[in-house]
Design a protein that fits this description.
Layout lengths: L12 E5 L4 H12 L3 E6 L11 E4 L5 H15 L4 E4 L16 H29 L2 E6 L13 H21 L4 E8 L5 H14 L3 H11 L11 H11 L11 E4 L8
Parallel strand pairs: 1-2, 1-4, 2-3, 4-5, 5-6, 6-7
Helix pairs in contact: 1-7, 2-3, 3-4, 5-6
Family: Belongs to the short-chain dehydrogenases/reductases (SDR) family.
InterPro entries: NAD(P)-bd_dom_sf (IPR036291), Sc_DH/Rdtase_CS (IPR020904), SDR_fam (IPR002347)
Keywords: Oxidoreductase
Length: 262
Amino acid sequence: MDFTFENELNDKIALVTGGSKGAGKAIADRLQKAGATVIITARNKPENETNGIHFLSADLSKPDGTQKVVDEIVEKFGRLDILINNMGGSETPGGGFAVLSDEDWESTFQTNLLAPVRLDRGFLPGMIERREGVIIHIASIQAKLPLYDSTLPYAAAKAALVNYSKSLSQEVAPNGVRVLTVSPGWIMTTASSRMMERIAERSGGTTEQATNSVMKALGGIPFGRPAWPEEVAELVGFLVSPRAAYLTGTEYVIDGGTIPTI
């Protein structure tokens, strides 16, 4: 069969967690355009729904939430071919180690590490039985470049996710299942744009100056700008496609050159 952008994921069923906005929404849209049946999860229903994309409301930071998603997808669709563990984030206070409670650490690890682990555990048996499937873990360059004063638990959780993803890939590759990690740098989502506007208002400068100040705080982005969500989505779209059939166990960094080391 000759694969094209429009049909290479025909007959595939894909789940994108945190798929209602930002990079998650871009990934969901990209997979649907390639022919996949796409399901997204989030706590709240998206403001702007995309026709043909199925929505499941769930709090994946709780075991009951992940089990609900597994059960409903298996019941309604019979299987899952592509799992994009995109949900993540940091809501802990800045200020370094001294201000962080056990609850801050636990909630961050539930969202950024244990939710993907539970979903993998729920869907992998079916993938292994069929001897096909792709799992993508969306991590972060903070796994290698942690910001100790603002997102210490998040960075630690993402580092654990990268390690877990590599180990899992080695376990399931003989069963025909591919596991990969995508680690973005700063992505210019709608939320990021609003943050730049707020910084500009407080400082009396422009949004361009605010963006440059944040890039400087990150150590600089050689490409000169953050990534667009669609650029991350394009990488994910390739990795889950038949064109990437021999790729597994690898971390793909998409950061505009932010990480300064090999």
